Amino acid sequence: MLQISYNKKKLAGTFDLPASKSISNRLLIMRALERSKVLFDNLSEAEDTYMMRLYLSFINTCAGSDIPLSLDAHNAGTVFRFLLAYLSRQEGKWLLTGGERMRQRPVGALVDALRSLGADIKYTEKEGFPPLIIHGEDLKGGKVELNASSSSQYVSALMLIAPHLPGGLTIKLKTEPVSSAYIDMTATLMQNFGAKVLLGKNEVCVEEGMYAVEKIGVESDWSGAAFWYEMVAFGMGASVHLPGLSENSVQGDRFLSEVFDKLGVRSVFTEDGLDLIHTGKVAKTIDFDFTHAPDIVPSVMVACAGLGVEGRFSGIEHLRIKESDRILSMQQELGNIGATIAQDGESYLLHPGNKDVSGKLIFNSHGDHRMAMSLAPLAMKYKTVVIKEPDVVKKSYPGYWDEMKKTGLFALKKIND
To answer: Which band of pLDDT confidence, cut at 50, 70 and 90, is reported for residue 61?
Structure first.
């Protein structure tokens, strides 16, 4: 457990964000498809990206084996889903599995789509869920139908391999995809490497071809900026500079700037990044649709609870199948400070509450990196908080606790369970 104590100093300075693992993992798949040795600048050091690099190297070395080779994606959604599509056309037999939570996250829609292209994939336990046995072989191109209502990663996984399919691929979307900003990201990155991608209202068309992989730099992670937005929202007179963020980013989580403008944080883009400035102008209520930016929801919920703002959150039902059930996890943890989150039709209403808290607040991370990082800034409101499983931040932001310490506002101390 990690104890975080706040000393009420003014928050000011420049702080480092991780590189985007979402961008990094897409680049790595494209590079692997071309057997390229190009090195990317500022590749993510997150656990998920390290795992992707390791497994792609392993796959290249072990391709062709008749004995199923095991790859454990643990709780990394992009690693599991991108590798599922990638392995479907790699010679050899593969056992693709994950941790306990990953085995509860559905993958049937992607498996069905790949099977329709000729993939040989079998479930080893529960139908529609990991683990999977994959016998890699040549796939056909053409058309495929896909339900992407639970994850945009299904679409991105198919898009990334599509240029290497005979005749390319047209993906018919049977439902409106969630997190469509990530589909836009995939398309843009593919186009940057020469792929011909056309995004329509209900379909994605990718022509057959090759990637012209070249050295590029990876953007800083907008998702990681969410926790700094929280800290600035809680800090009177706070001012933070975050290098490497762009107003024209391919990342959908740039939506943060619009949401937190209502929560007392002004975003000012500079030549090399972003300045966050505390304004204190906080709305009494907010109402946003997070369908296409789900990763920022935990931070916005915590900010609302800490600032006393009522919030209506739409388009978040798919948060139930993330690294944790993030709706249930937030209900439980914010309940410690008197906040409630209740379903209202297709939306969820957060009421901040006014519970008096005495002593240390102990928060469970639920094995979820975004839960741990979003709850930590509440030390600024309640003096001391304790975070269980603090190491989960390695999944996306390995340096998070070091950067919090660098602010000079927090004393961080590991304590026994």
So the answer is: confident
- 242 forms beta bridges with 274
The reported pLDDT for the residue numbered 279 is 97
Count other C-beta atoms under 10 Å from residue 93's C-beta.
18
- Phi, psi values for residue 194, rounded to 5°: 90, 0
Q: Which CATH superfamily is 2-18+220-414 part of?
A: Enolpyruvate transferase domain (3.65.10.10)
The answer, yes or no, to whether residue 134 has pLDDT greater than 80, is: yes
CATH class of 21-206: alpha beta
pLDDT at 2 (0 to 100): 97
Q: Which of 253, 295, 391, 402 is catalytic?
A: 295
pLDDT at 403: 97
236, pLDDT greater than 80: yes
Q: Where are the domains of the chain?
A: 2-18+220-414, 21-206
Phi then psi dihedrals of residue 257, to 5 deg: -65, -35
pLDDT digits (tens, 9 = 90+) for 203-223: 999 999 999 999 999 999 999
Its pTM surpasses 0.85: yes
| Unique residue bearing structure tokens 């390319």 | 168
Contacts of 345 (CB under 8 A, 6+ apart): none
| pLDDT given at position 67 | 80
pLDDT recorded at residue 175: 85
Structure tokens at 207: 């022509």
**H or E element in which residue 341 lies:** strand 340-344
Which residues lie below 8 Å from residue 4, measured CB to CB, with a gap of 6+?
376, 379, 384, 385, 386, 387, 404, 410, 411, 412
Which residues, including other chains, have CB under 8 Å from residue 204's CB and lie 6 or more apart?
155, 159, 170, 171, 173, 183, 187, 197, 198
3-state secondary structure of 187: helix
Nearest to 274 by CA among 320, 312, 239: 239
Coil, helix or strand at residue 7: coil
Spatial CB neighbours of 74, under 8 Å, sequence gap ≥ 6: 51, 98, 99, 102
Q: Based on the number of CB atoms within 10 Å of its own CB, is 400 exposed (0-12), middle (13-18) or buried (19 or more)?
A: buried
**Known catalytic residue at 295:** yes
Q: In one letter, which amino acid is 344?
A: D
